[in-house]
Amino acid sequence: MKTPASKAPVLRRFCLPIITGLIAVLLLVPGAFQARADILEEFNKGVGLMQENKFAEGSAVFDDIIKTYGGAGAYDSYGAAFGVMYYHRALCSMVLGKYKEAGKDFETCIKDFPNKTVAADKVQSINKYHTLAFFQWGRSEQAAEEYAGALALYEKFLSKKPERGTYSPAELYTNMAICQIKLDKIPEGTATLTQVIGAFTRLKEQEKNQVYLAFLELATKWVEHVLPKEGIEFMDTNEFAIRYSPSEMIFNGYNVRLLKLAQSCIEADKGMEGLGLRFMSFLPRMEDAIAELEQQQFGFSAPAVKERAKERIKKLQDEIASGKHIDITVYRILAYAWEKLGDTRAAYAVYDYMAQNYENAVIKDGEKEEPFHPEIVYNAARTSFYLGDINSAQHHALLFLAKYPGHKLEDQVREMLLEQLFLRGEYLRCIEITDNMLPRQTKGTPRHDLCLYVRGGSFFYEAMYPEAQPLLDEHVQLYPDSTWRAQTLYYQAGNQVKLLEWKKAAGLLDTWLGKYKESELRPFALLDRGMCHFMENENAPALAVVKELEDNYPGSGILDSSLNLKGNVYQNLGKPAEAETAYSKAKEIAESEGHGPIAIESIIQLISVYTKLERFEDAVKLYEEFTEKFSGDSREPEVVANALKALGETKQIEKGLAHMEDMIIRMGKDENVDLEKAITTYGKFYTEYLGADKLIARIKELREEPNLGSRVQAWLLILYVDTADEEFEGVKRTAEINAAMSFLSGFDMKDLAPYQLGRLGDYLAKAGRVAEAAKFFEEIIARPGDDGKIFALDGLGKVYTESPDKASQAKGVEYLLKVENYQDPTFTERAWASLARYYERTEQWSKAEEYWFKLVKDKSFKNYGAEKWFGLGMAREMQGNLKESVAAYLQVFTTHKSLVGHSSEAWRRACELQWKRGEKQNAYKLVRTMLEQMGYFGDMTGDLKPDIQKAKEEVNKAKKLYEIWRSELGATDPDVQIRRPK
Questions:
Q1: CA-CA distance, 831 to 208, in Å (whole number)?
Q2: Three-state DSSP class for residue 669
Q3: Alpha carbon 981 to chain centroid distance?
Q4: Among 55, 72, 381, 790, which is most buried by a count of CB atoms within 10 Å?
């Protein structure tokens, strides 16, 4: 039977010690070959070759001896001793893997050359290997995998009661155990091997080696026959004997065999995982082997041992450096086993250790070698995410993304990271990850579903509402069956609330609330719906929502917010007492639950309520409570601003204004903070309680403060301009405005906010310094973003359309038309008025009519009342549309009579147009009515205001018309009775 070549070296190792003593045995019986010295010489030659490991040559020598001197007469010629020739040739055959030939020679040695008494005329000699040949024959059969025959020969050998010292009992019983195990006689083999292990400490190194081989054979049977209990019990009992030298385990290849057994157990799905893990507990690490070899290299070992240790250390270190060593596979299988057994924490510990220590790990994928560290880090991230150890998970996931961009597992890592980061509320990181990830996903896939959901939700929670809305809408449209459908639908609705789209939000929320009655997001949806009711002045439904929240979701964590909403509704209803109760309860809950922002909102609203109720002392107490508990909060300026009225009424305005100044200086250091509102409020209360002169003086003092930043200085100068413009008159007003503007003009335009630039531009334009004004507006246009753009477009439009240069006028029209793109009603109204005036000035009457008509048609536009109707009348008149013109003029003097400049001219023109149309009686009656109601302006004298002067002129024109028409018509009615105002 063919036997693997790998077994030959093992057999050779066990033959050599036996061969070493053969010459000594032969010398004890020289008489057998005394007559033939040449046989003895040949025999010694053969033995010498064996000792030199030249077994083929040695075998040839014994072949010659047997061919020359053997045969039928060999026993008669040389006695039993000639059997040693067959014995030695058998040993050579065993080493050469010729087990059948070896078996025949051992059989010949035993059967043809027995030790027996012979006749006196026969040669008397002894075959010293007659009994030992049974043992060696058994070994040969075992090597040929004829285990039953081998076992029978071992038992026969024992029955011969072999002489002690001629064989190794440990080897014999170990071989017997192996044969029993191979024959599936597992209990017998286990018992035999246990008998040898009992004497383990007394065994030689080669015998221990044999014991370990037997253990591996037994272990193989535990796996084949699914005997985990027996295996674990055996290993627990005999652990000392089978915990072998780390370096010998590695260099003998035992660790590879043991690892394969462990892997088979773990992958078998037969409840063998425990046995597999027990096998793995005996596997040495490379570093353990190196440590052992270093002791040999630097200890009291023989020079040969030291040299071998040095060579082995180098080999192991080279394997470690290559990243291909067995430890990587061991840990990989170990982690898999723990996961399979449900111990994810143990699996994570393995992956974490590997991630830290095996960065250069390499694994084979078919014929190709690939770095294995990315997969290790991925698994460390995956298992730690499963365990909820988010810090470790993030560490490994972010490490993976940093080290292995573009790896095939990258999206899986991002996916794991996304879910956990989103659950933890780390929305900015989610946005950062999906920046790269979302565009690479195919629509309709689970990963695209997740990315879109997380990105939209993250923008929502980060208050980036315009960015969130299209993503949320897309998710709702694409994924009606998504795992996150309920969440996305809520975000979609809630986002509309944040965008102040109350009607859209209300419809979406109503649908959501009707469908998702058990969702954990329901309280938040109710609160949002309540806000929509409130903003649409639907006070009763808003209160009903708050009641549902109070009754059904007292532990939702948003009861304090809902009570603040309740307070807002009661304020809307003019019920300050009820509002106070709601805000006070909200404040109490918020403070007890650590919801600082909600508590601050309650304080802000309570201060407003107390101020309206003129409970100024209570308002001041709340202000002081805030400064004690929440000083430094971002809403501190708002609290101070709300408290200024109460502080003023309790004679503490200086304290409040000083606090506000401190806030303004602090806010000025943050470029993202809007200073305008804070400074406007500061100026309002300073003027109200201390006067405009003192405010101007204080602004001049503050400008000298060394810690005052340029932003604050600029805003204070704007306040200076506004205060002078509103509070002063005449020369003083002009002087103060010019002083403030001269200071502002000294600033680098790049240091000014858009509003400040716009204010300067306005001032310069009104002062006739058009070219300078345009520079400030152009600076706003040149900046990125939309901040102040609409203001600048409006300003530039006015500046250029009022220019005498036609090219500039065209440019101005272009700017004014762009204003409409921003869809801001206030600025659209202003731009249309500027365009109408421009077309009026340039006598483009159809275009003027178009824009004046737009202004009167849109009822939401409340400004330019008299001017727009007058302009519409004038544009129609100039195009000959007299009837429509009269209708427009009528709106001026009936609706805006107090604006006497416009109304007097419109009235007079309406009279003339009716006369032109032939409606002379109507014209005459209309002019009489005008004189009755406005005739008194004709008698006014002195330095009149422009609109009064205009009315006087129009009345005098109307008097002349009246006299001419009265004469032409021959009217006999009484003279006009002028009504003079009381």
A1: 101
A2: coil
A3: 75
A4: 381
What residues are paired with 368 via a beta bridge?
365
Cα separations in angstroms, 730 against 717, 768, 862, 895: 20, 18, 30, 32
- Contact (CB, 8 A) for 602 and 626: no
Given a cut of 70, whether residue 803 has pLDDT beyond it is: yes
pTM of the entire structure?
0.55
**What are the contacts of 358-364 at 24+ separation with CB within 8 A?**
358/323, 358/327, 358/328, 358/331, 360/321, 360/322, 360/323, 361/323, 361/328, 362/322, 362/323, 362/324, 362/328, 363/328
DSSP 324: -
Query: Helix/strand/coil (H, E, C) string of 378-412?
Result: HHHHHHHHHHCCHHHHHHHHHHHHHHCCCCCCHHH
Measured in degrees and rounded to the nearest 5, phi and psi for residue 368 equal -100, 140
Token digits of residue 36? 């033939």
Residue 176: per-residue pLDDT? 95
- Long-range residue pairs from 233-241, CB within 8 A, at least 24 positions apart, any chain: 234/190, 234/194, 235/278, 235/279, 235/282, 237/194, 238/194, 238/197, 240/200, 241/197, 241/200, 241/208, 241/211, 241/215
- When the pLDDT of each residue in the chain is averaged and rounded to a whole number, the result is 87
pLDDT reading at 714 higher than 70: yes
CA of 965: how far to CAs of 142, 700, 928, 969, in Å? 146, 64, 10, 6
The runs of H, that is alpha helices, within 767-844 are 770-782, 789-801, 806-819, 825-841
Query: 3-class secondary structure for 41-67?
Result: HHHHHHHHHHHCCCHHHHHHHHHHHHH
Listed residue (186, 188, 215) closest to 200, CA to CA: 215
Q: Higher model confidence: residue 436 or residue 48?
A: 48
Residue 369 sits at φ, ψ, to 5 deg, of: -95, 135
Q: Where are the beta strands (DSSP E) in 829-976?
A: none
**Contact residues for 796 (Cβ-Cβ < 8 A; gap 6+):** 774, 777, 778, 781, 811, 812, 815
Q: Report the pLDDT value the prediction gives residue 745, as an integer from 0 to 100.
A: 73
- Report the distance separating Cα 308 and Cα 103, nearest Å: 36
Instruction: Write the single-letter amino acid at 33.
Output: F
> Which H or E run includes 6?
none
What pLDDT, in 10s, does the model give residues 496-543?
A: 999 999 999 999 999 999 999 989 999 999 999 999 999 999 999 999
Give the residue among 916, 905, 919, 906 at the shortest CA–CA distance from 950.
905
Provide the phi-psi class of 843: left if phi over 0, else alpha when psi is between -120 and 50, else beta: left
Which residue bears the tokens 């988010």? 390
Task: Judge contact between 542 and 569, C-beta under 8 A.
Answer: yes
Percent of the chain at pLDDT above 70?
Answer: 95
Report d(CA 645, CA 623) in Å as an integer.
11
As a whole number of angstroms, the distance between CA 415 and CA 433 comes to 9
Tell me the backbone φ, ψ of residue 365, rounded to 5 degrees: -120, 95
User: Counting every residue, how long is the chain?
Assistant: 982
Alpha-carbon 910 to chain mean position: 71
Report the C-alpha gap between 885 and 888 in whole angstroms. 5
Percentage of the chain surpassing pLDDT 90?
45
Q: Which residues of 476-508 are buried (b: 16+ CB within 10 A; e: fewer)?
A: beebeebebbbbbbbbbbbbbbbeebbebbbeb
What DSSP string runs through 495-516? Answer: HHHHTT-HHHHHHHHHHHHHH-
Q: DSSP state, 803?
A: S
The Cα–Cα gap between 609 and 748 comes to 43
Rg (CA), the chain: 53
C-alpha dihedral over 343, 344, 349, 351, to 10 degrees? 130
The amino acid at residue 181 is: I
